[in-house]
Amino acid sequence: MTAWKSRISRAKLFLDIHCYISLLALAVVLLHVLPKLHSIKWSMTWVSTLMLSSVVLSGLVGKYVAKTPILRRNWRYFHIPYTLVFYLIVLPHVLKEGFKP
Q1: Taking the chain, what is the end-to-end CA distance rounded to the nearest angstrom?
Q2: Of 81, 90, 82, which is closest to residue 25 (Cα–Cα)?
Q3: Which candidate, 17, 78, 25, 15, places its Cα nearest to that of 48?
Q4: Tens-place pLDDT, residues 2-38
Q5: Rounded-to-integer distance, Cα 12 and Cα 20, Å
Q6: Which of 2, 12, 26, 66 could form a disulfide with 75 if both were Cys (CB 3.0 to 4.6 A apart)?
Q7: Distances from the Cα of 76 to the Cαs of 39, 54, 92, in angstroms?
Q8: What are the residues whose beta carbons fall under 8 Å from the beta carbon of 28, sequence distance 6 or more?
Q9: Contact indicator for 43, 91 with CB cutoff of 8 Å
């Protein structure tokens, strides 16, 4: 019984860390993008920034709102594929630009 409690507490810790890192990533991306947004027309910058914002918001909804198993399952059907699409959209930018200072 204690093994299950330990596994659950590790999963909750992982989820908490995952959420904090996601919020930190959103803050870093906004700091990276905001100075450039005034001169950028509708572009992939806007799309990827809005997608990241919605992925983080979706994650927070999943953590704090989707408490029942049915809501959690339906939330996962949205959140996981949407996150993968976000990564596929952002990957060319990261590979092209790299991590320049």
Answers
A1: 49
A2: 90
A3: 25
A4: 766 777 788 888 888 999 999 999 999 889 888 876 7
A5: 12
A6: 66
A7: 36, 14, 25
A8: none
A9: no
For residues 51 and 86, what is the distance between their CA atoms, to the nearest angstrom? 6
pLDDT digits (tens, 9 = 90+) for 44-93: 777 888 899 999 999 988 888 888 888 888 888 889 999 999 999 888 87
DSSP string, 59-92: HHHHHHT--SHHHHHHHHHHHHHHHHHHHHHHHH
Placement of tokens 């989820």 in the chain: 15
Of 47, 65, 58, 53, which Cα lies nearest the Cα of 81?
Answer: 58
With 0-12 / 13-18 / 19 or more C-beta atoms within 10 angstroms meaning exposed / middle / buried, residue 52 is: buried
